[in-house]
Specification:
The chain is an alpha/beta fold. It folds into two domains: 8-173 and 358-374, Rossmann fold (3-Layer(aba) Sandwich), CATH 3.40.50.2000; 183-353, 3-Layer(aba) Sandwich (Rossmann fold), CATH 3.40.50. It has 15 helices and 13 strands. It has helices at 25-40, 51-57, 75-85, 96-106, 132-144, 153-161, 183-197, 217-224, 245-255, 268-274, 289-297, 307-313, 325-336, 339-353, 359-374; strands at 15-20, 44-49, 65-68, 90-94, 119-123, 147-150, 167-169, 204-208, 235-239, 259-263, 277-280, 301-304, 318-320. A seven-stranded parallel sheet has the order 3-2-1-4-5-6-7, sandwiched between helices. Strands 10-9-8-11-12-13 form a six-stranded parallel sheet, with helices on both faces. Strand 12, helix 12 (307-313) and strand 13 form a beta-alpha-beta unit. It is elongated. It starts with 14 loop residues before the first strand and ends in a 9-residue tail after the last helix. This is Glycosyltransferase family 4 protein.
Amino acid sequence: MTRTPPPPHGQAPLRTVQVLGHGATAGAAHVRSLTAGLIARGVQVTVCAPPPAEETHGFTAAGARFVPVAARPDPVALAALRGAFRDADVVHAHGVRAGLSAMPVLRTVRGPRGGRLPLVVTWHTAARATGALVRLRERQLARAAAVVLGVCAGLVDRARERGARDARLAPVAPPGPRTGGDGGEADRTRHKVRAELGVVDRPLVLAAGPLEERQEYDLLLDAAHAWAAREPRPLLVVVGEGSRRAALQRRIDTEELPVLLAGHRADLPELLATADVVAVPGRWEARPPLAQQALAAGAPLVAAATGELCELLGPAAELTRPGDAVSLARAVLGLLADPARRTALATAGPLQAADWPTEDATVAQVLSVYDEVARPGCSRAPA
C-alpha cells in the first residue's frame, strides 16, 4: 500500500484529477511519472482515462485512484468525470481532446472555495488537422484554462495565439530508467530477449506506442519494404495496442513484411537495450516518450526532423525527412550497416539527455502551478 506523507504546513492534502484522452501517448507516460511524484509529495491523485491507459501505464500501481472513462464524451463518460471532479482542488487535462472533454463538466462543478474549479492543460502535440473548427476548439480551451503548459516553445506560442491567459513552457521529462544489473546480467537479458523474438542472428528494429494514426506506422511499414529482401532479414518489432492493429496486421500479412506486432509488453527498457535501431516515424509529438527513452538508454535512434525534435535530440539521433518512407528506410539501413555510427549515437544519447529536465524538476514545476491556481498565496517548501 502506498503511504502518503503529510502535506506541507499542515494543510489538507491537495487533490488533483488528471484527464487523458484517447491515444494520448506522450500524455499518458507523463501522467504515470507525474502521479508517482505527486503522491510522494502528499498529493491525492485521480486519473480519468480510457481503460487501456491503465493496462499500459499502471496508474493504480503508482498509488492513484483510476476512473475509467470512454474515449467519446458520452453521458456515461461525462458522469464519471463529474463524480471525479467533485472532490478535486484542480483538474489537469493532457491534450486538447482531454481538455475539451473536461470543459462542459467543469461548468457544473464548483471548486473547494465555491468558485470555478481551476483547469490546467498541458499541450503535448500539435493538431494534425487544420482549419477554422480546430482553431475554434483550441481557442475555447486556451481561454478556459487557468494555465496552459506547452512541452515546447512552439506549443506555448500556439496557446498564446489562441488567447491563453497564461501559457508557460513546461518540458516533460522522460520516465526514469530502471536500475539494471551488472554487465553479465545485461548480456544474458539481451540474449534471452533476442532469442524470444527470433532475432539471434538478424537485426532488430524497435518501435513502440499506441497503434493509432498519429504514430504513422504505415510509414514505417512502407520503409520495411526496403529491408524485406535483405539478408539477414531485419525484424521490425512494434510494441503497443490500438485501433489500427487489425489494419496494420492485414498489411503485414498481405505484403509479407518482416514485422511483428508484439502488443503490450512490460519489458520496454530491456527491448531498448537489445534493439539495433529504434525508430520513431511520427512527426506530431513534440517530445515522444520513446525518443527520450531511447536516447537516455543509449539506443541508436532514427526520428523525423521536425523543429521540436531537432531541438530535443540534437546530434544524438539520425534525423529523416518527415513523412518520407524512403528517407526513413535509408536511415535505418544506414545505421544497420554502420556499427561505428551506432556506437557513436549510443554514446551521444545519454549526454544529450543529461540536459533534459529530471522527473523531480518536472513534478516540482507542475505542483507549483497547482498551488498557484488552487491555493493562491500558498508557499510550498521545496521538495
